[in-house]
Amino acid sequence: MAISGISGVGYTSSSTGSETTWTTKQLAQLQNYAQQHMSVNEIANKMNRPVSAVRTEAAALGLNLK
Predict the structure, then answer these.
(1) What whole-number distance in Å separates Cα of residue 41 and Cα of residue 39?
(2) What is the pLDDT of residue 20?
(3) Which label site among 5, 23, 34, 47 has the fewest CB atoms less than 10 Å from its CB?
(4) Does residue 28 fall inside a structural domain?
(5) Domain that includes residue 60, residue range
(6) How many domains, in total, are found in the chain?
């Protein structure tokens, strides 16, 4: 599953102020989880990311999450 045109969008954590970029592998994993109809909470837990970061990245990829 290829993801084209995505360079990796980062998010800034309000608690740490640090930015974390998404790797190509993580983007593919996010897309895979979305295709499996996993909830945003499940995806965030599996990927060890904040729910808001998962939602933001999914929207940037044009993915619909439940």
Answers:
(1) 5
(2) 82
(3) 5
(4) no
(5) 33-66
(6) 1
Per-residue confidence (pLDDT) for residue 19, from 0 to 100: 61
Which residue(s) pair with 19 in the sheet?
A: 12
* 52 vs 58: CA distance, rounded Å: 10
The owner of tokens 């499996």 is 36
**Alpha carbons 7 and 38: distance in angstroms, whole number:** 24
What residues contact 55, with CB distance under 8 A and at least 6 apart? 40, 65
Distance CA 43, CA 47 (A): 6
Q: Using one digit for the tens of pLDDT, what is the confidence trace for 3-62?
A: 554 445 554 444 445 568 999 999 999 999 999 999 999 999 999 999 999 999 999 999
0.85 exceeded by pTM: no
